[in-house]
Amino acid sequence: MQISLRQRIHFHRGIIILLLRLCLGGMFLYAGIHKIHNIAGFRDAVANYEILPYWIVNIAVIIIPWLEFLIGSLLILGIFVKACTMLNCMLLMLFNIAIGINIHRGVEIYCGCFSEKDFAGVTNLSHISLNMLWLFIASVLFIMERRRFSHRFFSRNTTQR
Amino acid sequence: MDATIILLTAIVTAILINEQRRDNIPMLPACLNNKFYREIKLSTFTGRYCGDKTCLIFDARPHELYKKNRLEGSLNFPVSQFDFFYKLYLSDTPRDIPIFIYGRTTSQAFDCELAYRLATNGYKNIMVIQ
Question: Which of A72, A114, A156, B38 has its CB surrounded by the most CB atoms within 10 Å?
Fold first, then answer.
């Protein structure tokens, strides 16, 4: 039984998508769990950014970690992959804008990304470059993954996009 | 459509689990209820508010911000160290002493948090300078 070139390309494409999904999903899942676990620290970090009005900070702090957790889990499971990568890109862009504003202001603040000890100010540009890398991965995944669900089990009764 | 489902699920999950947590965060800051303090504008604030009585002016921001700029005669009362500064400044003061509080940034309402905590400790004459 010979495997056609088309099937081989399809197989490799599937492996790449799986790896990207696991990387991106794992990162978001970890970030979400970390923030849920230390919600008070995350609240302080968001407030220190001085971007959101004070009456909206708590709402954002409650919702963002669970959104990250959900996106991460769904990406790993391969459910709603397109929508997840889209939300992923939006979140990463928002984070980059927030960090960028504080770099522009020249303020040293805690990033609140993974560890409370990470500075995201002028002396540390690694967060913004790392976010750009994740944004690139999410964009590649968004372009490569054409299906709503990555597994046949989920996509049995749905049409391909 | 899928993105909306994910967003709504995240919002509902976040709210439900936050309600169950011991260290939950209120959706809106408790201090937003301004029944327990009056607001006055910084432009209209002068010493005459104190009248003949002694009054206290508190800057509720962290010490680093207080060092940068402050109102004349104000005392630094960082709300994050409430217990320590409460004992320092207010241990022997009557509950009806006029207290003026200021210190609001874009994302942090230190002033109304301090006003709220002082009001829960029985202080009745609290004014927040905005």
Answer: A72
